[in-house]
Amino acid sequence: MTMTLWYLGRGFGVSALVLLSMVVALGMAVRAGRPLPGLSRSAQQTLHRVLSLTAVQVVLLHVLTLWADPYAQLRAVDAVVPFAGRLHPIGLGLGTVALELVVALVVSSLLRRRIGLRLWRAIHWLAYLFWPLSVLHALGTGTDRGAPWFQWTVAACGALVGAALTWRIAHRQDGTTPPRPAPPRELAGLR
Amino acid sequence: MTQRLHVDWIRCRGRGICYELLPELLEADDWGYPLSRTGEPRPVVPARLQEDAEDAVRECPRMALRLLDEQEPARRRPVLPKRP
Amino acid sequence: MITELPEPAVHRPGSPCRPRLLATLDADYVEHTARLGPLPVLGPRDLVDLAASSGLTGRGGAAFPTGRKLASLLTARRTVVIGNAAEGEPASSKDELLLRRAPHLVLDGLLLAAQALGGQEIYLYGPSAVLASSVRRAVAEREDARFVRLVAAPDAFVSGQDTAVVQAVQGRPALPRTNPPATYVSGVRGLPTLVQNVETAAHLALIARYGAYWFRQAGTDEEPGTRLHTVSGAVRHPGVYELPGGASLDDAVAAAGGPAEALQALLVGGYHGGWVPWDPITRALPLSRSALRDYDAAPGAGVVIALPARRCGLRAGADVAAYLAGQNAGQCGPCRYGLPSAAAVLERLAEGRAGPRVRTELDRLLRMVDGRGACSHPSGTVRLIRSTLRTFHGEVDRHLAGHCSAAPVPGEVRR
After folding, report:
1. What is the distance between the alpha carbons of residues C53 and C49, in angstroms, rounded to a whole number?
2. Cβ of B44 under 8 Å from any chain C Cβ?
3. Is C355 exposed, middle or buried (0-12, 13-18, 19+ CB in 10 A)?
4. Contact at 8 Å (CB) between C140 and C180?
5. What is the count of residue pairs from A and C with beta carbons less than 8 Å apart?
6. I need a labelling partner for C233 at 20 to 30 A (CA). Which of A63, A151, C121, C159 fits?
């Protein structure tokens, strides 16, 4: 039984990382000035939202299965207080912070209209912090970190997010304000 | 009651989701901002486009769209999140 | 007791009337109250009725009926009153004149409104130089004005827009905000706010003393009372002149000493106004909304700019459009990108470099900009450009053929 939970827990973790990488990549693509070829902007945005909700459920399953598994030595408090865990405290701690961030990201987005644009945007910027923490958590606690399949998976996630970031920067919607000419002198005789 | 679609131009950044969802009422101008096809800056939303308009309001990433009742333009009509 | 101001006869447009706002220039507070009488204390309903029956309209450009504006604030428990002398319009200096030489009239008007509407927060928003000098002195001379807070206005075209005024008074950048909600519903810190042009306030100060009937003895039914006009350009004595409502364009130019040279057109209503050609028929047009409607002009804030015949009308229009395009607040996409695009096309036309489809292209751009923005800046600029094309349509044809009426040599387009 416990081996099943252990495998499930790790499986959910890796799946979550892949899904979250897709979510982050989509989130950046939505923000770029040009939509991704083949997918309308509204579809990209909907996909980003649907995948994020899916991903967060997988993250929760990851946490719950590991909590239920005695081998993982996960206590309830480790889900909230970082760096106090028994097994791989640092790697786990990063996961705790990432968990809190993803909850903040999703909850703030669900309550977007209520909290207003500025607060929502401020919280959503944390996504740029959240993703690297997830990767570090995976590398820090992942039992499979030595395994090639795992390394390729993490590398692929990194490549995906890197590509999205490049796209985002390359297609920045820019905001240059044109220079201001002075009022025509002859016409405005008095000033 | 007649409903009009109002754009908060200060919020709008021309992200372009609204004219994808409401192509009958809106199109992109030269710079990616939503241009009303009816000629009025605040187009009337016909009943058959009501749901699409509410989608556009909800999906705008900058929350720059509002539906205003003709009679009470100062009050905004709340568009609540839809069940996915 | 009051001997100077009220006039016995009705003044028909065309005949000069005695100055009213400009009658007590450079008076200190003692002289001001001695000549005009003390400032009456009016209850809210009395002030609204007085303003409404006088027919006073806003002198800041929009010409909204003052009585109605005040009435909309009657239900508010607390009101903020702001006197707006920002005068973003470069060709206007009437508000600055009032602040510099008749600040007590302005203060009277603001205090009247504040007293009647239950406002204890009063601001006066205008150019820093004149606030720091004559206004500060005037405030110091009177006990009742000690609550008035002076706020410096930046020298930008949009800084006089009422939502921008509300922002500036709260210490934020003077940029327009989205309307709705209007400032009389939600302004400074969400409170109902009265943003009143200082000339309108000055008129109120006199109406409160002499009554609505007195106010209406000058001017016409459509444009009662007097208004200040800033007349500039090719006139002998550019300056600020007080004329009865409905005075003709000819009267305005005559008040400024008459044309300095042969005139081609007048820009009426400022940079967001319209060009009216100068000919024997149009010269006699009264400065009223109905008469000027065909030229998309209105008395507005009283700006009249005289364009001499030797200058190219398209060049003048293009210069104004370029200025207006540069004065966008940078907040709204269609204005920020659309105005410079349209101004650039007009510039090409003015320089004689435009192709035959320029009218269609300009029309397309203008329709893309009109009405799309948080404030009226894009629409006003569109109006000015359209008016330029309409009034100087002959010039447009000439430029498309490679000529310009202002050029000494045929085939050359003069800048």
Report:
1. 6
2. no
3. exposed
4. no
5. 53
6. C159
